[in-house]
Amino acid sequence: MKQYRFILSGGGTGGHIYPAIAIANELKTRFPDAEFLFVGAKDKMEMQKVPQSGYQITGLWIAGLQRRITFDNALFPLKLISSLFRARTIVRQFKPDVVIGTGGFASGPLLQIATLLGIPTVIQEQNSFPGITNKLLSKKANTICVAYENLERFFPKEKMILTGNPVRQDVLDIDSKRSEALSYFNLDTNKKTLLILGGSLGSRRINQLIEKELDFLLASGVQVFWQCGNFYMSEYRHFSEKEDVQVVSFIDRMDLIYAAADFVISRAGASSVSELCLVGKPTIFIPSPNVAEDHQTKNGKAIADKKGALLIKESELEDKFESVFNKLLHDENLQNNLSLNMKKLAKPNATKDIVSEIIKLIK
Q1: pTM of the entire structure?
Q2: What confidence category does residue 180 fall into, taking pLDDT thresholds of 50, 70 and 90?
Q3: Which pick of 29, 251, 296, 355 has the fewest CB atoms within 10 Å?
Q4: Is 14 among the annotated ligand-binding positions?
């Protein structure tokens, strides 16, 4: 049997890294002898997270354009040329059967070079509003796996396959893990648990909100498990001294914290949205308005419009947060309907379906 070789590229945030790792894991299940190489951006979190998952990674000197005039923007053309040359060397030496891009700046040069060299490429687009890298790459890519409908205005229709987003397989069966989860995180079994998720890098605005509303939340009778992000940990760590509050920078067992949670407040990054649809816990999305093309608002709205979650814009938090949370906490009908509607939008077979599309290209 042929020994296949796969290059995967994506990074900058967990939303691009974890889908790439999930795809690699599924490919490895089907082709245990296959060889894998990840390509990321130097100095970004993929350089740690990918080796922790057991794969080798090499870095490109690449970063995105900032929205304001900066020294980094002046370096962008130089970084792009350097990355294209480096990507060409990587692809020629590794000789992949297929190259898979999950978004982020490093995937741009890599997929560009792969298509020039005639190697099949697959794009996995997580968002309801694609980023500029994937829009540019889509013209030459062989297959584009998408998580949302109605992306014809961005991508060639004949190349698109609706698969959903790859997610960690361990979040598929959380109901059986609840008692293990409560003891793992040392949570009170008699209290409802509110899980706060700021995304892989943390969220300043959500952290400010929880700091301001913490007494209100505790007075509501919930215990708070608050993922604030590495960057903000020193600022918020001391809140763990309060009863019924745990502050962490990063959560290593997402399956268990989802199992323990009764309610979730989260950013609306694509991977988080996809995981929360599988998990089906009553959720309030607070999308970040500071991401490219405001795609988090579009991701969250795609769920909220189908009555699967509640959504509060950052600009409305002062006026709406307490009343929205109060209603969610005390209205069991609302909780049940949100859970049911959210689970209807889940795509539990996404990773397997994406890998089946990849295999079609190499067979």
Answers
A1: 0.84
A2: very high
A3: 29
A4: yes
- Residue 73's pLDDT is 60
Residue 13 marked as a ligand binder: yes
Task: Say whether 168 counts as a known binding-site residue.
Answer: yes
pLDDT at 70: 59
Tokens for 314, please give them: 């950052």
What is the pLDDT, as a whole number, of residue 285?
98
Domain extents in the chain: 5-165+349-362, 170-344
Q: Does the annotation flag 200 for ligand binding?
A: yes
Could you check whether 5-165+349-362 and 170-344 share the same CATH topology?
Answer: yes
Cα separation, 122 vs 118, whole angstroms:
13
Mapped to the 3 state alphabet, what secondary structure does the chain carry? CCCCEEEEECCCCHHHHHHHHHHHHHHHHHCCCCEEEEEEECCCCHHHHHHHCCCCEEEECCCCCCCCCCHHHHHHHHHHHHHHHHHHHHHHHHCCCEEEECCCCCHHHHHHHHHHCCCCEEEEECCCCCCHHHHHHCCCCCEEEECCCCCCCCCCHHHEEECCCCCCHHHCCCHHHHHHHHHHCCCCCCCCEEEEECCCCCCHHHHHHHHHHHHHHHHCCCEEEEECCHHHHHHHHHHHHCCCEEEECCCCCHHHHHHHCCEEEECCCHHHHHHHHHHCCCEEECCCCCCHHHHHHHHHHHHHCCCCCEECCHHHHHHHHHHHHHHHHHCHHHHHHHHHHHHHCCCCCHHHHHHHHHHHHHC
pLDDT at residue 67 tops 60: no
Quick one: CATH architecture of 5-165+349-362? 3-Layer(aba) Sandwich (3.40)
Of the pLDDT bands very low, low, confident and very high (cuts 50, 70, 90), residue 194 is: very high
Is 251 marked within a binding site?
A: yes
Average pLDDT taken over every residue of the chain: 91
Asked whether residue 1 carries a pLDDT value surpassing 80, the answer given is no
End-to-end CA separation in angstroms for the chain: 12
CA distance 121 to 52: 25
Residue 249 is encoded by which pair of tokens? 């920078």
